[in-house]
């Protein structure tokens, strides 16, 4: 009984922290209209800053607390509101979600960059020297008392702020209907600033309270928040009392599992994964009232032409041959992952781009593909590759079942929960048997992966594997483009634009969603298998939730609707990372930070970089003489790189220079000569975006 | 009932465009204090845009917006709202996820010093049904009740200018007649009222002045009498002007 009480006290004090963090999430959601994935990361940064002041520089605790909570946290909140959220305010929910994911990745990279993760940073609990309080048989430390008291004070304060004050009502009104709030004389900017300042302050309180009880580690602290997500989902992201109830359930569950779960190889992971599992269940069990969003803007999905997709495939293959002929073997290994990660990124296109289902667990599914291939295709058996794809597709279909009930941020949360369960539990399991089937993933360590045996030709060298991955990327790119052009692609876009309309037209939501999840997971599984072949040995870390965030962010920056996102993501992820890694180990976090910054910059072209590149380079593609000149220049550069030792970098630079110069020439030539009558615009010369306005002005003046 | 001290709300040569496509080609319109002006016209004529310009939601490309003779072109809509411009937008001008009481609390921002109690008193006094539903989420009220709550802003915050967009949308004719009765009552307190309405008959009963907008221009304006009916049918039905 004493033991039970002790676990209860521990559980309640953890619950108090989850309640603080969860109520911060609810506050940001109801007052800023954003589900902040980076909430935990903000708390993590606050904990690090507090450590730096109180321990690193030896400031007195009250001074350190005051600086972090009253200066740094509000400043960070204002920064987030001004720099990240205001530009995407007019865009949809998905865009705001991407911003917070980018912020999450950025915070983790920043913390690792500033505070070396290999140095331990102990943080002592508050009032650690005082004698603990005895309540009958239970012992409560002062840190726990402070934690619970803080949680209660925050609960009461927040509730009265939201429901009893003008400022709270103003914040809620601005989320409910921003335009109407302006009409009643409220100030949405002021409300947004207040909401973010308060939200980040709450995150900071939670981070500082939880840091002494766990290790001060950037990734672990940022993801502890999964438990707080669960609490917030209990409150349906809007009710504070229910959020507190959820926090108590999660906190007690964790404490009792830690105390009573039998010790063996299979179950410790379950304890870590329990909050994520509970989150998954809570998402499914509770009905969700989505905020009424009238500002839902849907980004257009470009329609790739048959020729365009073949050109893209040709570019992929040419790039692969170029890399193989120019690079040394070591470089082939490090740059080769470009194509396999490209395949993983391409899996976002049908799922998120066409069907509008945001998933953050694609790299985890790729990990399943890699592990299955590693075990079944241990000697390169070719049949194992389709099996790996099918297993990944089956897992994807499994994720799709809950997705039927979820959409938007709830779906993204569900996939985060799924990836967390895989990370913390399934991927850490030793091999086990279910219903007579032997299941082995990462065997608590690493799995060695070999290349496939293509009808007697065993592909093992890095160059062969690179070409194989490139061929797969080219083929899947053409296939995904074909999907977009066909009726299935139209169906997916109809599903994205309006599920209700899709269903009333006779479409079956269940079939369509399961199919697109399975398809996308199959592509991810293929990408994972190829990635594994190039890495030769794979571990669970390489396929974790956090490892997958940069891939997702770059795919978003490229444009989730564009088929070229696969190649773009591979290039934009692998090339800068490899170049920066050459500078030294410190640069590794810098590249992660750059990716996060790129994600934050995406607000300025929400339809993606590729769409812009297409319009920029289209004149060159239509200009035959200049195109021929470009191809000649590229071939020359290739020859230079292949024949001259160390000619690679100058050749690439020369090729880029030639391409950019010729593009400028082509754009100048395509600018129409004056004197073509308006009715021939679009026929005798290409249609330009500004033509519409010229015509409407002309007709308006005439009418 | 019309005060003769010049127009309270004045649009002078207003041109406005969306994404480079011009919608208003120079609109001149005056509304005096205590006057009800009906703005009529076919779909897509630019009626709602006139209201958006008047409320500061859409900055005009050319021309001026004047209130009480003072140029207020380009002033932020929230400041205009606090200065007494009250636009009740198309659809339901209420916050659906806020309670009736919180919706009324939001009106204190443009209430020019009126406190919560005063606003609640006025609103509940005129619409007792809202008092009975004060704790309920506004989105769960009936359409007529939501429109009452929206109109309560025009009533309780003592605006100088009241702009109404399609008040009748989705409501039963009896409810519409009742609401326009209230609009006339608000005008009698000296408020300049500009009403956009597809359902012309409802508003013409109380309007002192009518203007017909066609393709971004005011094609006809004057007293709403028999000649207006002929004008309207020609513009709506497309007979040669």
Automatic annotation (TrEMBL), chain A:
Matching entries from CDD domains are given as: TM_PBP1_LivH_like, TM_PBP1_LivM_like
Q: Which family does it belong to?
A: Belongs to the binding-protein-dependent transport system permease family. LivHM subfamily.
Cellular location of this protein? Cell membrane
Bilayer disposition of the protein: Multi-pass membrane protein
Spell out the molecular function terms from Gene Ontology.
branched-chain amino acid transmembrane transporter activity
Q: Specify one Pfam family.
A: BPD_transp_2
Taxonomic source organism: Streptomyces fuscichromogenes
Which PANTHER family does this chain map to?
ABC TRANSPORTER PERMEASE PROTEIN, BRANCHED-CHAIN AMINO ACID TRANSPORT SYSTEM PERMEASE PROTEIN LIVH
Q: Where are the transmembrane segments?
A: 6-27, 34-51, 63-85, 97-115, 135-162, 194-212, 242-261, 267-287, 308-327, 333-351, 382-401, 408-427, 465-483, 510-531, 551-574, 586-605, 625-644
Tell me the protein's name.
Answer: ABC transporter permease
Question: What are its GO cellular component terms?
Answer: plasma membrane
TrEMBL record, chain B:
Which SMART domains does the entry link to?
AAA
Drop me one GO molecular function for this one. branched-chain amino acid transmembrane transporter activity
Asked whether the UniProt record includes ATP-binding among its keywords, one would answer yes
Record domain ABC transporter: where: 9-240
**What processes in GO biological process is this protein linked to?**
L-amino acid transport
Annotated keywords:
Amino-acid transport, ATP-binding, Nucleotide-binding, Transport
**Family of this protein:** Belongs to the ABC transporter superfamily.
Give the protein name, as stated in the record.
ABC transporter ATP-binding protein
Organism of origin? Streptomyces fuscichromogenes
Recorded name of the encoding gene:
livF
